[in-house]
Amino acid sequence: DSPEASPSVVFENIERCGPKLLEMLLESISGLVVDADFTVELIPEINVAVATFIKSIDTKEFVKKCSEHKRVREFKMTVRLLESTQTIKAENLPDSISTDYLAVYFENARNGGGPVSDVQLFPEENSAIITFCDHKGNT
Predict the structure, then answer these.
(1) Which residues make Cβ contacts (< 8 Å) with residue 15, sequence separation at least 6?
(2) Where is the PARP14 second RRM domain (predicted)?
(3) What are the residue boundaries of the structural domains of the chain, listed by start?
(4) What are the residues whose beta carbons fall under 8 Å from the beta carbon of 105, sequence distance 6 or more?
């Protein structure tokens, strides 16, 4: 794996920290501004939030600072780097979508893509699993 740290950080057990509070907390810890320097995606189904840094920072150091932060500990949140993966799931796809369209879309560098090795379409769920040749093409 590459020595470069992920630009994304996972916050688990976020139920005691509302979305706006989490954003303010991350701004306070990082010294950065939400939307301009980083984004936060909530995944309430699994009680997780993912902060992705647009501005280049030392995410390993940020994880360490968060883990030691008084409020993060009070909320009993855990913090870790988002691990790299070669596979993503695309959801809410139109009925007419094809595997070829998805492969070309996700291979387009403008979409943050890279070489795709496989696309599995699940029409009944309007979703697909896209597998990249390496983990760099799934941003």
Answers:
(1) 47
(2) 5-83
(3) 8-81, 87-132
(4) 111, 113
61 — phi, psi (to 5°)?
Answer: -65, -40
Q: What's the fold here for domain 87-132?
A: Alpha-Beta Plaits (3.30.70)
Residue type, 55: K
pLDDT for 109-123, tens place per residue? 877 788 999 999 999
Question: Helix (H, G, I), strand (E, B), or coil: what is residue 69?
Answer: coil
Q: Are 82 and 10 in contact (CB under 8 A)?
A: yes
Q: What is the four-CA torsion angle of 40, 41, 45, 47, rounded to 10 degrees?
A: -20
Strand partners, 53: 38
- Tallying the residues shown for the chain, one arrives at 139
Identify which of 52, 48, 67 has the alpha carbon closest to the alpha carbon of residue 9: 52
